[in-house]
Write a structure and sequence with these properties.
membrane, mainly alpha, 95 residues, transmembrane
Length: 95
């Protein structure tokens, strides 16, 4: 009877070890993929891949999104102002 429980414990330990190793590899690959994506994005835009640059990029895209929402709601002046601000922020970043 003791041999059965020894085998059961060893098998359960191997399954847990396999799952943990699988999750470690998954998260390591996700981190590498995210880093590669951000490096490629920054390189194609000609900006540094720093956190500040990426936050400014998100701010500029958010301003353009606000412009699109305003234009879809037929608010022409507000849409133009948001678009001008978004393009200004993105031009500062890219130049």
């Amino acid at each position: 009877m003791q041999e059965f429980f020894t085998w059961l414990g060893a098998t359960l330990g191997e399954i847990i070890r396999f799952v943990v190793d699988l999750l470690i590899q998954l998260f390591r690959n996700l981190g590498d993929a995210a880093e590669g994506f951000l490096d490629g994005l920054a390189e194609s835009l000609g900006i540094s891949p720093s956190l500040i640059s990426l936050l400014v990029l998100l701010l500029g895209l958010w301003l353009l999104y606000l412009a699109l929402r305003a234009l879809l709601r037929r608010r022409l002046i507000g849409g133009l102002i948001w678009a001008l601000l978004g393009v200004t922020v993105l031009s500062w970043l890219i130049n």
